[in-house]
Amino acid sequence: MTTGERRHVRNGLLFCAPWLVGLTVFTGYPVVASLFYSFCDYSILQAPVFSGTENYQRLLSDSVFWQSLRNTLLFALLSLPAGMVVALGLAMLLNTGARGLAVWRTIFYLPSIVPVVASSMLWLWIFNGKFGLLNWVLGPVWRWWGATPPAWLADPAWAKPALALMSLWGVGNSMVIYLAGLQQVPVELYEAAEIDGASARQRFWHITLPLISPVIYFNLIMGIIGTLQCFTQVFVMTGGADGAPARSTLLYALYLFSVAFYDLRMGYASALAWVLFLVIVTLTIIATKLMEKRVHYAT
Amino acid sequence: MQPKTRLGKVVVYALLAVCSMVFLFPLIWLVATSLKPIEQTMTFPPTWLPRGPAGQIAPQWVNYRDALAAMGGTGPTAVPFVRFLANTILVCGLGVIGAVFSNALVAYGLTRIPWRGRKGLFAITLATMMIPFPVLMVPLYGVFKSLGWIGTLQPLWVPAFFANAFYIFLMRQFFRTIPEELSEAARIDGCNEWQIFWRIILPLCKPVLAVVALFHFLAAWNDFLGPVLFLTRKPTFTLALALQNYQNQAGGVPWHHLMAASAVVIAPIIVLFFLAQKTFIRGIATTGLKG
């Protein structure tokens, strides 16, 4: 190594020093420790005791674990596709060249930056079965069918759809990303297709979707990662990590939290965390495989 | 795609208007509820405007004062609202300073200095973005416990001074676009690495510094899991935790006060958004398009 190279290494390490410390203390060590704890009996009050694969074996027969996993996947299945359709739909509306883009965009985006605790409070009120805004608006639909409108979060059957509905209010973030993607699609392509007699639907399926597929892929992966870790809304709206009513909103992250910090079973909680990681990785790989042939990079 | 016909245009504007209403209704409902006397929150069908005894429009501004007082509880253990505000500002302020400074340093080290190992370090950095927080949660609690930080605000802002994979990535994208010749010329002129960073690169990077500052402020203001994990005593609560704590104690009855308290927690974020709208939109679009 020349003196110049050596100086570069020294400077590089110096500039990266904060991250080298942060990476070790706040990420590296926790990852290793968590993996170790997942094979231990550990209550944080006493030193961990190695227990082999016991935690993982117990998982398989833990019905609450399976229920929380089912709840989470069901919630993801309800909220992710709907969220993508709404976000992309709004972005396409904004991309029509309508006047006042900045105003419309602000209106759609604003709810997504509302602090989650505050928006949970608001939606708790909106979902209120008796005096809530939602049953005022949707009540007639139910009564038209001769049914009573649901109590949403207080009803085990409607709690998850309610959470998914609320999540639609916060699609502003992915909408902005879709919009940025749509704005990069060359207008000439649409013009050429139109001259060739392509209908609006054909233009959407054969031009818009393929050209924004990288953005769809990005939003999908981010959506999977975020939804599987969803915690705060449910914790605030159902008053803790018990997944009330009747464990219908016991999402994975809530069960993990309650195992770790209510029951102080840190070893078991660490095993749960690693299984969550595996689930996220698996779903990401599946999504990547499904999208792989369809994602179009214009480079 | 632009609508060609007149009908198409009408449909677009109609859809925009309807969707805007749907997105705005909840926020209007929040403000409306926060200004009503409690009896008027419990009517069905609900009314939009707070009314006085003679039917005139009469917003009850006093709800805000009462809600903020109620948030801290009553009796000898009561905590004044400004305490929660001060805690939040501390966590956000120190966090923003730490995040901007540390991530700029690291991004500089990873992009502007040609040293062996920087590619490897960047690959590791990207890989850590995949790790979900629940995996880190338990050991982090242990780390902060052994540092004696549980029950203090430190776990919420000190880590910001040690960089973060996502912000490093964001800044790196920007740092890379600055021509290498600038650094070369400065080196020839006898600038050392620190001077190049501080005098040349940083002033050019203000847009991305603003994005990171904004993102971190927002994340720190909104954070709930962190406070709920690491804060134990009410005087250390941040606004988000204090709001949830208030709702938990009060149960689901004083909706007018709950909405007023929520509005107070939301308002600064909305003001910030309007002050920095362009930075916001650019920041999000960048993360999505280059990611």
The CATH superfamily of chain A is MetI-like
**In terms of structural class, how would the helical and strand content of chain B be classed?**
mainly alpha
* Sequence of secondary-structure elements of chain B: HHHHHHHHHHHHHHH
General shape of chain A: globular
Q: Give the terminus-to-terminus CA distance of chain A.
A: 37 Å
Based on the structure given, which CATH architecture of chain B is correct?
Answer: Orthogonal Bundle
Tell me the fraction of residues in β-strands of chain B, as a range.
under 5%
Largest sheet of chain B: none
Write down how many β-strands of chain A occur, each being a DSSP E stretch of 2 or more residues. 2
What's the overall geometry of chain B? globular
| Radius of gyration of chain B from CA coordinates | 24 Å
CATH superfamily of chain B: MetI-like
Multimeric state of these chains?
A: heterodimer
Overall pLDDT of chain A: 93
Question: Could you say what the CATH topology of chain B is called?
Answer: MetI-like fold
User: Under CATH, the topology of chain A is which?
Assistant: MetI-like fold
Named CATH architecture of chain A: Orthogonal Bundle
Query: Are there runs of chain A of 5+ residues with pLDDT below 50, and where?
Result: none
For the record, the CATH class of chain B is Mainly Alpha
Explain how this protein is built:
The complex is a heterodimer of chains A (299) and B (291). With 299 residues, chain A is mostly helical. Chain A has helices spanning 3-37, 54-60, 63-94, 101-113, 116-126, 133-144, 159-168, 172-183, 187-195, 200-211, 213-228, 232-237, 252-262, 266-292; strands at residues 40-41, 49-50. Chain A has 14 helices and 2 strands. Chain A has a two-stranded antiparallel sheet. Chain A is globular and about 70 Å long. Chain B has one domain: MetI-like fold, CATH 1.10.3720.10. The longest helix of chain B has 31 residues, at 81-111. The two termini of chain B are 25 Å apart. At the A-B interface, helix 1, helix 3, helix 4, helix 5 and helix 8 of A face helix 1, helix 4, helix 5, helix 6 and helix 11 of B.
